[in-house]
Structures are given as C-alpha cells and as structure tokens.
Write a structure and sequence with these properties.
With 313 residues, this protein is an alpha/beta fold. It is 42% helix and 10% strand. It has a 4-stranded parallel β-sheet. The longest helix has 21 residues, at 58-78. The chain is globular. The two termini are 40 Å apart. The chain binds pyridoxal-5'-phosphate.
C-alpha cells in the first residue's frame, strides 16, 4: 500500500510564530517568516560560548562546529563542495560585496552583461559598480552572444526566474561567457529540484494533477514545499517495496537505457531530457493495450473534454 507522507499543515504552521496573528503574508522569500527551530538554533548558538573559529577552547570549537555543519548542510542541499560555501547576510548583500570586489579590477570602457530575466538583486549591484568604474552595461535579451565582446568582464544571470519560471541553460551560458574571457555570476536563489518539478507539472491540465509518486531518493527533500507551491500531494511507497510504484520502477528501467546508473544528470540540458521523455512517451506499453503514453493521455483528455461539453449548460 502506498501511504501519504505525513505533511500536517497545522503542525508546520505551528513552527512559524509570525503566522499566529492571523494575517496572510505575501512576502514569500525563504527567511521572511522564521521557523521557531531556526530561531532556537540561533539563540542556542549565541548563548553558548563562542569565539573565533579554532580547536583549542570550547568557544572556538563551537564556532568551528557551527560553520562546518552549515557548510556541509548547504553542500548536501546544493550537491556542491562544502568548502566552496560562503555565507552572507542576504543574496543582495553578497552580490553588492562581490560587485565591489570584482569591479576594482574593471577599467573604463570594459563591459558587463545583465539580464531582464533577473531579480533586481542580480542587476542593481552590478549597474552601480559599473557606473562607478565607467563600465558599459549591456542587457541580454534572447541572444547573449550578441552582447559579448573582448571587453566583457562579467555576465550576471539567474538560474531560474522567480517571476516566470524560465530556467536558462546555464551550462551553455557558461561556455559562451568563458570563451569570451568573462566571469559568470549566477543567482541560484529560485533554482531547486522542487522548482524544476513545479515548472514541469504545471504545464499539465489541473485535473490530471492528482498526486506525484516518487522514488525514495533525497532529490525530493523539499516535497512539503512542492505541495504548498503547487497543491500536488507527494506519495512515497514503503521502503524496499518497488511493486507499490510499478510505473515509476518501470520508467526508471527505461531511463537507465539513456542515463546509465551514476550518470551526472547535470551533463544534460532541459531540451535533451525533454527529448528522452518524448521518446519514452511515444513507446507502446503493454499496460496501455499497446498504446503509447502520449496516445493514452490524448485519449483521456479527449474523453474528459467531451464529457465536459456534454454537461455544459
Ligand atoms: C531569484 C531571487 N534572487 C535574489 C533574491 C534576493 O534575495 P535576498 O532577499 O536574500 O537578498 C530573491 C528574493 O526574492 C529572489 O527571488
């Protein structure tokens, strides 16, 4: 039997004291309303002995431990090297810091490229720094390469638009940016697994979005947020019970023909992954009476549509 993940909205809400006033808060970025567990962890850290990082005194070790744990947690979340993780007050503040540092090497007549897809946090700091350094600001619309020149020092772009969900092909952007000899600065604030799923599934008609049955990997650690964002409940099968998610298991087998085990999926861009999905959706399946998944979906949509027409007054 599959079982619903215990996502108890009231229990989660209870961890956000700021929501107790009854007001709806539409300022959504993570961190605007703080869960009590986070506030408690900060309080605990600040009331413990703390010093500069080190290994001799307890205070030094506490600081060392907190920084190390945070880096490891972020490395795990982002599938990145923990040693490459740095912390700042906010994405905007970090971008201002970096823009000041990097622009110290820019010369009058150099160029930078920013995009209209970005949150202002990844635009304004660069424009202010460019103004001070006498650097030309170019705007990338659809054709980034057209904006690059031998004088380009930096390209700033988002990995996912928080407004319209567009996810530029960052690998391709990195390749052209680096071949122009420029640095690439990517805002990853809105890019996470759940966003990728949310963007895909919301292209389906609403009545088909009943639930998502997931394999038991850690990729969907943010399933609770995905449910909040899209209204789509996520089901997890019992451990070691692949028969409870037959289609999922069968599709994994088919996907392995394209992406062998241990393949780093980051090597593939969205268009390539869509092409594999298209091939699989056009492959006849016994469980569908040898129709392809695409045909079965089409038949279903047509039957739902004609049922809808018949009952329309
Ligand atoms: C895509 C994106 N980038 C950057 C920011 C700014 O983040 P911060 O509040 O940490 O400065 C936001 C905030 O909503 C965002 O959505």
């Amino acid at each position: 039997m599959t079982r619903t993940t215990t996502f108890d909205v009231n229990a989660i809400r209870a961890h956000f004291p700021a929501l107790r006033g009854g007001a709806a808060h539409f300022d959504g970025p993570g961190g605007s309303q703080t869960p009590d567990t986070v506030a408690d962890a900060i309080r605990h850290a600040m009331l413990s002995p703390l010093a500069n990082r080190g290994t001799i005194t307890r205070a030094e070790r506490n600081a060392e431990e907190i920084v190390g744990q945070c880096r490891r947690a972020l490395g795990d979340l982002l599938n990145a090297d923990p040693d490459g993780v740095i912390f700042g007050r906010s994405m905007t503040a970090v971008t201002f810091d970096l823009s000041r540092t990097l622009s110290a090497t820019w010369r009058s007549g150099d160029e930078i490229v920013v995009s209209r897809l970005d949150h202002d946090a990844n635009v304004r700091p660069w424009i202010i720094a460019a103004d001070k350094a006498g650097v030309v600001v170019r705007w990338a619309d659809f054709d980034l390469e057209a904006q690059l020149s031998p004088r380009t020092r930096l390209v700033a772009i988002t990995a996912a638009s928080n407004l319209i969900g567009t996810m530029p092909d960052i690998k391709a952007v990195a390749a052209v940016t680096h071949s122009a000899g420029a640095l690439l600065y990517v805002d990853g604030g809105a890019r996470a697994m759940k966003d990728a799923i949310a963007a895909k599934i919301t292209t389906l008609p609403q009545h088909l979005l009943q639930s998502l049955t997931w394999d038991r990997g850690k990729e969907i650690a943010q399933h609770a947020q995905l449910t909040i964002d899209t209204g789509l409940p996520v089901y997890f099968a019992d451990p070691h019970s692949p028969w409870q998610r037959g289609t999922n298991e069968n599709t994994n087998g088919l996907l392995r023909q394209y992406f062998p085990k241990e393949t780093d999926l980051a090597r593939w861009n969205d268009a390539e992954i869509d092409a594999v999905a298209m091939a699989l959706n056009n492959r006849p399946r016994k469980t569908l009476g040898w129709r392809t998944p695409a045909e079965a979906l089409n038949d279903h949509l047509r039957s739902v549509q004609s049922a809808g027409v018949a009952t329309t007054h």
